[in-house]
Amino acid sequence: MLSKVAERVYWAARYLERVESTARMLSIYDTLLFDLPRQVNLGWYNLIVINSLEQDFNERYSVQDERNVVKFLVGDDTNPSSIVTSLKAIRENIRTTRDVIPADTWELVNELSQYVQDHLQQGINRRDRHEFLGNVISACQQIIGLWQVNMPRDSAWEMLKLGQNLERADMTTRNLDAATAAIMQIEDDDFAVNSQQIIWGNVLRSLSADQPYRRAMRSSVKAPLVCSFLLTDPRFPRSVEYCLNDMIQGVKALPRAEKIIADIRKLHKTVTDRAEDSAPGPEMREALNDLQISLQYLHFSISRTWFLNDQEQLAVAQ
Amino acid sequence: MSINWKHYELQEGFYDELISSPGNPRVPARQLANYLNSLTEEEIQSRKLAAESTIKDMGVSFTVYSEGENIDRAWPFDIVPRIISAQQWEKTAAGLRQRLKALNMFIDDLYHEQKIIKDGVIPEFVLKQSKNYRPECEGVNPRFGVWAHICGTDLVRDGDGQFYVLEDNLRVPSGVSYMLENRSIMKRVLPEVFEKVSIAPVGDYPEALFNMLASLSPRQSSSPVVVVLTPGIFNSAYFEHAFLAQRMGAELVEGSDLVVGKDDCVYMKTISGLERVDVIYRRIDDMFLDPEVFHPESVLGVPGLMRAWRKGKVALANAPGAGVADDKVVYAYVPDIIRYYLSEEPLIPNVETYLCYDDKQREYVLDNLDKLVVKPANESGGYGMLVGPHSTKKEREQFAELIKANPRNYIAQPTLALSTAPTLVGRSKVEPRHLDLRPFILQGESSYVTTGGLTRVAMKKGSLVVNSSQGGGSKDTWIVDTSAGKA
């Protein structure tokens, strides 16, 4: 498989996951705000902070309100991670890899892009937002389902899975971060306990983790248990643990994977070590931040191994 | 209302491919004409819609690059096929093979001893001033002595019904994927006719192309690595590059996917590391192939590629420098070239051509600009031409200046009475539209000609311009064997 094709497939999967996760994350805040007592003042700008988009956002907007934040995350083509930009990136990557990805993907991606373009306003207005985000999420799942059912388990498939798992792990840490940040923002008063319940419950629901959590933990929603579930549950497909294990299984089928496997194992160990202490607070946020950085390094490592074939390798080949 | 062939308005002085006189289809077209006549207006309309939706589903498109935006346009297609009898096609195909064989001997001679010039058949300055002569290619010995492996030759039929060669495209001819797609569309649109008529299949082209390319491999392995080199998604023929790569099971690569090693071999960058490439079907112009030798700023090519090719470590199809025979002045000499190398008479004639560097001929051209078509010697795609009868006085004056300033760079030909074929206009009316034909010829160890080729049609009434970039469309081309009717 050509390195460039591998890279494009990997990014198509990452961006698709990003679209879905961004839609999920926005819907946490959306329903969260309905449930929280009016006295609790939760800022939309948190979403910008946890996605590390402060600089891009502030270059564009001076008011950090709901409308601007949602606009920026959904429809802004200057935001490198917005739903619109991600969809564009998916299209470009699929257009040039149509021979290794099921043919219908192209049509579905076009339809989704068209839908998002045509209904941007719906996504920005709070009244219709839920329906809009729901449609985006199902369209993403349709594409993932198409891959799941139709793709031969070849290198292209492994590259898709790799991109998907990496982005998923990253997004789960960001969702956890979003909740932790929100909890820290809530003043310690009569409403606090109730609000914490609401926030963690919403994180679980937004990751479709509500039922799996209850079955696995046999407990009501408690902050440390939710964190530990999302970080280390071995069976839930959006937990960081699961994503890392799945990556290890997958990359074994790829050539020259030794270093990547070692990198993932190392990363895996830090997750297990940290999960011991999962109380939400500044330390938790810092740990999550470190984890995001490690995932970023894993990406560099993947890129060096499979996407950039530089002079060193040329020397090896001779 | 259905199609009534008695009301088909044949144009005086033009040969029509399907209809010989009002109400009388030519023999190979008879069954088709009767069938179309049996369809109601609604049925014709639904066939047309079926064609359009098939084109959309299959994603057939060509890309028009303008104002920085990339627009994929659906391929304009007419559902009335163009029909040629198998007997006539056989002779034409033999003529095309003969022509490419001679052209390849000519190119090989030019890059070696230049006997044809020493023998005075072609004046030396024609070569010296050719934009597509590459001194970098002198002395190279491509396998089988073949330089132009893939050739798209444009044929036209004049008022007398005879095929003439209009031009040879020896650089990176395109259109063959549309020929193949047109056939799959037609099978869905008029399946009933395919049951009744013996229409020769066209689908073996990718196989023939792959076999030819594989035969060029410098390494004698049973499975040589063949790649298609594309300039990328912004190229107007990207669809075709991807299509052919997919059909041949070859990798579609861009310049940045390839690298030339210290051992002068070409490698592609894969997730397993570097993998050696044996044959490159390149769809990039010579000048962009290798920044070390040609345009230094080109990012489309591969540094060192020419070195690898010259050392015989990789095969390039077409070989660099093959375009020298694509020059329109050289074109005028092709009949002489055939006689010189093969000692045969050309089987397909050239269109009469006036060479502006010759004083007498130039004088004639300048006196008759309003009747002639003037073409620059080295352009393709119908650009930079003067169509005399449709030109203004100002344009003619402009061209007269251009010709005088650089006579070597211009040729002129009489305005041809390009043949017509019935084409659907409106809901169920057919009118004659002008067309040409581009068959594709392959030459490696042996040669191959497509069954028919790509018929391009000027969709505008009276227009003679068939290029897709300038509003042309296409038709399926049927080679029909009337001697072996289907039971």
UniProtKB/TrEMBL annotation, chain A:
A Pfam family of this chain: Alpha-E
DUF403 domain ranges (all copies): 1-307
Protein's UniProt name: Uncharacterized conserved protein, Alpha-E superfamily
Organism this protein belongs to: Thalassolituus maritimus
From TrEMBL, chain B:
Domain of life of the native organism: Bacteria
One Pfam family linked to the record: CP_ATPgrasp_2
Circularly permuted ATP-grasp type domain: residues covered: 81-458
Protein name as catalogued: Uncharacterized conserved protein, circularly permuted ATPgrasp superfamily
Species per Swiss-Prot/TrEMBL record: Thalassolituus maritimus
